[in-house]
Specification:
Blueprint (H helix, E strand, L loop, with lengths): L4 E4 L2 E2 L2 E2 L1 H17 L3 E6 L4 H9 L4 E5 L9 H9 L8 E5 L2 H14 L2 E11 L5 E7 L4 E7 L5 E5 L16 E4 L30 E5 L9 H11 L2 E4 L1 H5 L21 E5 L5 H4 L7 E6 L6 H4 L2 E4 L2 H21 L1
Parallel strand pairs: 1-4, 1-6, 4-5, 5-11, 6-10, 7-10, 12-13, 12-14, 14-15, 15-16
Antiparallel strand pairs: 2-3, 7-8, 8-9
Helix pairs in contact: 3-4, 5-9
The structure holds flavin-adenine dinucleotide.
Flavin-adenine dinucleotide binds next to helix 6, helix 7, strand 15 and helix 9.
């Protein structure tokens, strides 16, 4: 076993995902501390730019494979790619706990008979070569500590958004190594097409944009104003806890620590939410945060990249109207 760190990168037709950049940063840190290289599996077509980016974010070696089977997530094919290198077992396999990552990681551990831990929030190499690993369970209410000896390979699933994306280092250099084809393999799943997720029904974890309403809304019917705004933006709707407690939205739409998840969408808009720590814990990793509140001193305003002070009942209908008009104009062009 070598002190290598392996990781598996996700991309959308060559666009490296945020979670992959995040996982590379953590892999790099571990690689530095264990004096080992970071080897990343980047499977699929059109990955040249993603490979260059992966190097900037911490990879030393990128394994690529362009077999058509990698056009969609196929765990068996990924395992076949990993198997080509598994004779040189790494020290750690670090996987982001996205929907596909969380599905692949236990398969890797089972296939190669390596250790496995999910919900990882911290990995600390110790002086004796062992790893001290913290995980969070029961909606982040329980923190567990595990130790893996220096002789064990372990597959770790890191909670996406728990660390954040680090800085790219444009001076780094790395090597791309194409893998042997895995084309002989037939997938047990046949992909017949892709349907874009409906923001109204997509899980908040998967939504690229989220708007969340709070107690600033006077009654349940007024949430239609928020829904109209969300529809115009192509965003999913969430809420603070009082709204869920009142039954205006189901708990599956709750934002905050009680939901047990940390959202990290591209855009998060809070409307009529004060920004209690319990709420902020669930959304602070969002890339762009806009907060609308009539109180400029509300704590949520400090979290915001753009703080809009005013009455939501005046602002939302007007902004919704303007977004719709812009969309219609763009469609006409
Ligand atoms: C153990 C525990 C766990 C919790 N977990 C969660 C959790 O996961 N998620 C969560 O959300 N909460 C959680 N809470 C509750 C949390 O502490 C807050 O009470 C809650 O987040 C407040 O919700 P809010 O911001 O919607 O309401 P409020 O605090 O009442 O804030 C309403 C805001 O709306 C603004 N406003 C009012 N009218 C308007 C208007 N017309 N236009 C614009 N702005 C307006 C006000 O200025 C105010 O800032 C938890 C509490 C505990 C004790």
């Amino acid at each position: 076993m070598e002190n290598m760190i392996w990781t598996w990168l996700e991309h959308d037709n060559g666009e490296l995902s945020e979670s992959s950049m995040e996982i590379l940063g953590e892999a790099r840190k571990l690689g530095n501390s264990l004096k080992g290289q970071v080897h990343a599996f980047l499977l699929g077509e059109n990955t040249e730019e993603a490979a260059a980016k992966a190097v900037m974010y911490g990879a030393d070696v990128i394994y690529t494979a362009t077999d058509p089977i990698f056009r969609a997530y196929c765990p068996e094919a990924c395992l076949a790619a990993f198997a080509q290198q598994a004779a040189r077992a790494p020290r750690i396999v670090l996987i982001s706990g996205t929907r596909n990552g969380a599905s692949l990681a236990p398969r890797i551990a089972t296939r190669f008979q390596w250790g496995y831990l999910a919900n990882v929030v911290k990995v600390a190499p110790q002086d004796d070569g062992s790893l001290k690993i913290n995980t969070e369970t029961y909606q982040a209410k329980v923190n567990n500590t595990y130790t893996f000896t220096a002789r064990q390979t372990v597959v770790l699933v890191l909670q996406p958004g728990s660390i954040g994306v680090g800085k790219a280092d444009k001076k780094r250099s790395g090597e791309v190594r194409p893998l042997e084809p895995v084309a002989e393999m037939t997938d047990r799943i046949e992909i017949i097409g892709f349907i874009k997720a409906d923001p109204r029904s997509v899980s908040l974890n998967d939504a690229e944009r989220v708007v969340a309403g709070g107690n600033g809304f006077r009654n349940q019917e007024d949430f239609e104003i928020l829904q109209g705004f969300a529809d115009a933006l192509g965003a999913a709707v969430g809420s603070s806890k009082p709204i869920a407690d009142k039954g205006w939205l189901p708990y599956s739409r709750l934002v905050g620590q009680s939901s047990g998840r940390r959202l990290a969408p591209n855009l998060f808009v809070s409307v009529g939410v004060s920004g209690a720590t319990h709420f902020v814990e669930g959304m602070k990793d969002s890339q762009l945060i806009i907060s609308i509140n009539k109180d400029k001193g509300a704590p949520i305003m400090k979290e915001a990249d753009l703080a809009v002070v005013g009455d939501l009942y005046e602002i939302l209908p007007e902004v919704t109207r303007q977004i719709r008009a812009m969309r219609e104009e763009a469609e006409r062009e």
